[in-house]
Amino acid sequence: MNTNDGKRRTPGSGGELPPAERDPLYARIYAVVRLIPRGQVATYGQIAEIVGGCTARMVGYAMAACPDDVPWQRVVNAQGKVSPRADHWGAEVQRLRLIEEGIVFDADYRMDLPRVRWPGPDRAWLAEHGYPPPEEHGLPPDAVQAKLF
Prior knowledge:
Helix content is 33%, strand content 3%. It is an all-alpha fold. The two termini are 27 Å apart.
């Protein structure tokens, strides 16, 4: 989350987070999020499942502290909604960015998650970058992509 002084802060703490390079878990989360194409989204839980060793909440904290080159707006909650933010404007910025990417929201600010959900990285990318294979996510070994949740 950016503040007026341009620094990133943890939600509600007011403290600066270390750069992603100092946190291997955040770096792994960011590597996966950078793969989400324009016009598609992933859930916090989906990213946590792909990365392994973390929770959806930890992914949320990583998104709040991400570098500018991470498409944080493409990570949403499991209900297909943009999660509320303490600063109130962040959720609206996220929603507007997604609309610019072609994501449609209904009257309840919900997107058609089954239609716009990213299927996840392919097996080759997972193996090359040291992430668990799809079968460790409860998918059959012949799954081409990590279709989580």
